[in-house]
TM2 domain-containing protein
Amino acid sequence: MKRPIIALLLSGLILPGMGQLYLGRRNKGIALIMAINLLLLVSLFFVMKIASPVIGAHLTGTPLTPALILQQLQPYSFWAKLLLAAFFGLWGFSLVDLFSAFKGENDVSRN
């Protein structure tokens, strides 16, 4: 496989920033990986914050109703959408950055 295809597969399917690291663009690759990991850590925090009252209700024998679960989810819906948008934005940036790097290489090699 060609290097550009491998880099795209690494960033597109494995983890954003891996393709940049594969191509030797260390600073950008490390920054993308750190940003994605930070977003995943914040997402985990929100999942635990939402799940803890639901788990507590289950452990105490309180019936779990859809209304109780929605009540726990509602205050965090905006932040969840924002985190998801940031995650996909970084992922898209990673892929667009790789495409622009490949286009730049092809333009230079043609001249």
